[in-house]
Model the fold of this input.
Amino acid sequence: MDDGLTIPGPEARTVRQVLGEALVRLARDLVGLQPAFALSEPRRRELDRVRRIVLERWKREPGAVLSLLRWPTIGAPLRVMRDGGGDERLLGQWLATIGIEMAAAGLLDGDFVVTAPPARVVRASRCDGVEPGAGVDELAIRLDGSVLADGRLVQPVPMAVAVDESLQLALVDDNPLAMVEAHPDKSGNALDLGGRDVDGWLDALRHARRLLRDHAPGLARAAELLLRRVVPVGWDDRQHLSASYREAIGLAYLSLHPSPLTMLEALVHEAQHNVLNALFEVDDVLLDGWEPRHRSPVRPDLRPLGGVLLAVHAFVAVAHVLQRMREADHPLARGPHFERRLREVVRLNREGIATLRAHAHPTARGAALLAELEAWDARCGADDA
Done:
């Protein structure tokens, strides 16, 4: 239990294992990708070449291929197309993205050409990208990473800022699902700094990361393994909004809030969602996870059991971090507001666990996860409920 998927051990070995399984599946999905939409002949040739390169590199350097696929700029559109969505425009975006990332990683076997390319391509591994503009016929990606648009050299421009060695703040977001919204109180996740400067965002994210490392190193390590990019979605001093997508493992949408505890909670919450999204790639977890719908302790709308599980898995981790901060007598953990929040989180966890216990039909891995959740929840003292 102490190195599971709920509160990992310091090395987060189980989380690392699940992430590896999810990436291996994605590599296989890439090699076997057959989009549901019609392809032009140039697009088919470009896709076939990427598949051949990946398959050949997989035989010699599987780790390099998995590192490539960890970027949500590659993984998210690939999963959308794998699952029957997308169109030729999305495929063109993805081909240009994986092309410049393969060049940056030294995985190309020669110059790579994408016809009718997108106007903008993100290169997350270098926090930059290129903007060839509209109406370009051909994007040529060279072995050295340089990019030509119709024979014209395109200079890279910044598209992200490093938070630390494993996380970046996105200044451009190309997630095809960003405006797909399931929460009744939101209308998508458009990138927005909320009138704050980049340094303010970086300070808040770095502070939250330090708090997490200091008080829950296993959760911090899991977050470092899973989260690659944070997309800013505005500022609000009254509420906090965050989101993640099952297909976009490695990506989190966060709003900026003046409270360090709120930012910490949001970071833990979305990192935990990413952990379960990786698990969902390789296991159903709940046999009845997405129908029918039940009352959720944290949402006003009825939720499938998979949604209840996502909430409980996140908030059990939040309760753990808050408890550790209280035990350490951290200045932020003093005062009635902190105690009220901890009690509220524990209460919500117990309501969610009761719903899962009454209705869920888990797989073997799902049963182990539910047992973890119950065991960690039981560690919360009666005074926390």
Remarks:
- The longest strand covers residues 229-235.
- The chain is about 50% helix and 15% strand.
- The chain has a mean pLDDT of 93.
- The chain has two domains: 32-158, 168-384.
